[in-house]
Amino acid sequence: MSTVRGSVLILLNDRAERRRLFELLDSMEFEAIYAAKDATQARSMLGQESGVELIVLEFAAGDAEALNFCSDIRAQARTAKIPLLAILGAEPALIWPAGKIPAAVSDWVTIPVDVELMRRKIERLFTPAAVEKTELADKGDSFRFAFDHSLDELLVSDPGSGRIVDANQTYLSQAGFELPDVVGKLLDDLDLSHRDEARRELMAAVAKSGAVRYRGLTPRADGRKVMVDVVTRLVRVGADVRWLTAIRPAPAEEAGRPLAEFVEQLWKARGATLLARQLGQKLIELGKLDFLSLVSQRGEATGVGELSMNFARPGLSKSIVDQLTQVVMRKVLSGDAFVVPQGAWKALGPEAQQPGQRLEFLIGVPLRDANDELIGGLLASGHEVLAEASQLLVMARSFAARVAVELDLEHALDQGRAKGLQDSLTGLPNRLLFNDRLETTIREAHRTGEMFAVLFVDLDRFKTVNDSLGHGVGDELLLAVAKRLRAAIRGSDTVARYAGDEFTLILRHIVQRDDVIRIAEKICRVLESPLTLSDSRELHITASIGISFYPDDADSAEKLLQHADVAMYNAKGMGRNNYQAYVAVPEESHQQRLALEAKLRQAEKNGELRAYYQPQVSAQTEDIIGMEALIRWEHPELGMISPGFFIPLAEETGLIMPIGEWMLRTACHDTKRWHQRFGHPLRISVNLSALQLRQTNMVEMVRNILLESALEAEYLELEVTESINVKSIPNLIETLQGLRDLGCSIAIDDFGTGQSSLDYIRRFPADRIKIDQVFVRNIGVDPDDEAIVRATINMAQSLNRGVIAEGVEYEEHLEFLRDNGCEELQGYLFSRPLPAAAFESMMSEREKMLNGQAATN
After folding, report:
1. What is the 3-state secondary structure of 88-118?
2. Measured between alpha carbons, how far is 684 from 706 in angstroms, rounded to an integer?
3. Which residue in 439, 418, 440, 443 sits closest to 429, CA to CA?
4. How many CA atoms lie within 13 A of 414 on its CB side?
5. Coil, strand or helix: which one is 590?
6. Which distant-in-sequence residues (6+ apart) come within 8 Å of 396 by Cβ?
7. What percentage of residues in the chain have a pLDDT greater than 90?
């Protein structure tokens, strides 16, 4: 039986890693998972949440803030014993140069995070053994504590037998072994075989000098061998004398500086031919290559095209060169990327086994253009074994990528086709032309000393528009956005469609930063203006904008774009529909977020919240039987704002509770009024968030609102999402049952998108299942989604649950759902969400139509 653990607090900036970590922790039965943007917010959350049992903290090189945070939590009695797992943005030696893990850190992993390794480390932190180790450290067992917490891989072995008797956590984590896999084994693959003559030689060397150092290859659990530096010395462990072997990755300092210089030169050089000639030669020298071939290719990907560069070490057999260029290179040009770190000679024929002809490694890198089309390939080979973290591999891939960019640009220019540098939909410059203009702007700014800005504009919830309204509407929206962006900037500026729903801008000749801020404000305003589609529907769209400045924030194209992207995600994190300039100080963004939160706190008080209603109809009669209540925010300055702007902020800050109560009260009052006005028993559906369901007085609040509005409970339906975690919300089942006991019905919203089991659905106190629109919209397109919809309807009926489908947009959807027994429908085929006055007008028209039919009969 699994045990539900307490909560986890995460401070991790990397979006992809944070998403993966959330999924892992969620699968490990933690009660709740909290994410903090910075240490200030984390301290505040720790002060409010008493159930935090694990902290996951990101460390970067020289990260004083993270160290200060560690010191703070260890200084507080209520947080001193919470395990802290560090996520390192680089190798440990770069994060903690002293080579000593901070005392506050319980364990660590590096980015990219190995999820299974992370799982094992977390499990160990919650085992009695982990507690025992902490107690040993507290009791002063200095060797044990140093051994367990060292950043070096440490092995303890018996000098007499040469067999391992212990290994520290760093070794187990890096090597991928479990302790039973290691204890009792010999270190045969370390060039230091602890047996027979080699062991006697080692003992003699240690006795003579106290320690022995050497470099060798050490095995990993996945079969790899890693180049390492090893130091073995005699130590006393209790009453025993042992060999202590410390293992470190072979230092890359010697290669580090050439790598940095090489990459810097790559992005300064212009032209594929110049790159191939000058930096290709540099790559040969730094990598000690025996062979390097660079081929550019257009058209068929299976034939060898124009040879851009071909180097072979003098003395290398012609048959081997032919084998490489005619056979191996064809694999690269067919799209295969590969790395053979050692033993390449085995596949190159008998002559490759001769002295002076033996090639160990092969690196094959296809060259691709901006559309991911094959345009060439790079093949490199040499006589030394390629280390796991070889800088040569980074250089070769960077070299290939840079040559591909230049080849693609030259091809477009040589063809003289504007479409080669333009986005086919909007006519704006594409990513390729934008990058070229940015490089040109940097060179000119470097020469003249001018300041300019890079803006990253990302449309909010564009995927939802594309998915719910179709790609045609999405394209129409992108065209409108492109037109508005062009109108918002000057002729000397650049706007490009970078990818999908992402646009990038270069604003030149900037006198002061406020000039850019005003333009960003203008862009936010013009983009949020309602857009009338070709079919007369009205659509609201907003954008999040990130800004970086040259030279204040960066002096390279890559960094300027990266910083603007970071700033853009900060804007999204603050509720979307706003702009943020890149800042390195987290307190500033925290203050900006507080300002937005303050505006939202005043929304209800100032009468800025609005209730919208989307009709729900009978599948058989298509007559309205109910409606879903949806909230909107009409800000006096920003205009009508979609929930995508403020709901995430409301949930993060707890404001969702008063806002949700306002929505429930308003919906009940409106529904009762319409009952009295039209005499039609409409059912109102209102969404409940996870935070609302945590309220201990939830049932009492609903009861009071029903009494206050005089709405009969049977006409109130409360929706909860399928993905809601029963384990994270105390007494959830009891709360929902209490609401049903009042006479309300419960609906499972977004059904099919979660991980619910049939047994879970059977036991869940729900009256209705709502099929998510992600499946409904693919009716007539995807047979698998059609099968899911059919299965959901059948399951709901077999469990005596009602079923309603949302996202119904076409007659084909209606016919399929009706034929398969779906009882109720909701979607744009019948009506978009309407403000209360418009909904009431629709009901009046229905009444007139029914009265007219009665008079006719």
Report:
1. ECCCHHHHCCCCECCCCCCEEEECCCCHHHH
2. 12
3. 418
4. 8
5. helix
6. 283, 287, 363, 365, 378, 380
7. 17
Contact 393, 359 (CB under 8 A): no
The answer, yes or no, to whether residue 288 has pLDDT greater than 60, is yes
CA gap 162, 240 in Å, rounded: 14
Identify the DSSP state of 163: B
HSE-CB of 11 using CA atoms within 13 angstroms: 26
- Please check whether residue 237 is in contact with residue 144, taking contact to mean a CB–CB distance below 8 angstroms: no
Among 269-278, 334-343, 434-443, 841-850, the minimum mean pLDDT is found in 269-278
206-214 long-range contacts, CB within 8 A, separation 24+: 206/232, 206/233, 206/234, 206/243, 210/234
* Confidence category of residue 187, pLDDT binned at 50, 70, 90: low
The model's confidence at residue 422, banded by pLDDT at 50, 70 and 90, is confident
Task: List, for residues 796-846, the tens digit of each pLDDT value.
Answer: 888 889 999 988 877 888 999 999 999 999 987 888 788 899 899 999 988
Taking residues 143-150, report their average pLDDT: 65
Whether residue 251 has a cis bond before it, omega within 30° of 0: no
Distance CA 131, CA 152 (A): 22
Strand, coil or helix: 575: coil
> What is the C-alpha radius of gyration for the chain, rounded to an integer number of angstroms?
32
For tokens 């499990």, name the residue.
123
pLDDT of residue 291: 93
pLDDT of residue 129: 42
Half-sphere exposure for 696 (CA within 13 Å, toward CB): 0
Reported as a single tens digit per residue, the pLDDT across 526-582 is: 888 888 888 888 888 889 899 998 877 787 888 898 888 878 876 775 667 889 888
**Nearby residues of 500 by Cβ (< 8 Å), 6 or more positions away:** 462
Q: Mutual orientation of helices 253-268 and 280-287 as an angle, nearest 10°?
A: 170
Q: Facing residues of 215 across strands? A: 229
Number of other residues whose CB lies within 10 A of the CB of residue 207: 10
Per mean pLDDT, which range of 207-211, 516-520, 588-592 is the poorest? 588-592
Query: What DSSP letter does each residue of 814-846 carry, written as one string?
Result: HHHHHHTT--EEESTTT---EEHHHHHHHHHHH
- What residues form DSSP beta bridges with 748? 720, 769
* Contact (CB, 8 A) for 657 and 600: no
Q: How many CB atoms lie within 10 A of CB 670?
A: 21
Query: Residues near 353 by Cβ (< 8 Å), separated by ≥ 6?
Result: 345
Read off the pLDDT band of 323 (50, 70, 90). Answer: confident
Lowest mean pLDDT among 251-255, 738-742, 774-778: 251-255
Contact predicate 440/448, CB 8 Å: no
The reply to whether the predicted model has a pTM over 0.85 is no
The beta-carbon contacts of 360-363 under 8 Å, at least 24 apart in sequence, are 360/384, 360/385, 360/386, 361/385, 361/386, 362/328, 362/338, 363/338, 363/339, 363/392, 363/393, 363/396
The strand ranges marked E within 526-575 are: 531-532, 538-539, 543-550
The DSSP call for residue 679 is: -
List, in order, residues 6 or more apart from 534 with CB less than 8 Å away: 476
* DSSP track, 761-790: HHHS--SEEEE-HHHHTTTTT-HHHHHHHH
* 302 pLDDT tier (thresholds 50, 70, 90): very low
Q: Can you give the length of the chain in residues?
A: 857
Q: Which two tokens stand for residue 324?
A: 């490489």
Per-residue pLDDT at 714? 95
225-237, strands of its sheet edge to edge: 164-167, 153-157, 240-249, 225-237, 211-219
3-class secondary structure, 748:
strand
> What value does the mean pLDDT take over residues 407-423?
65
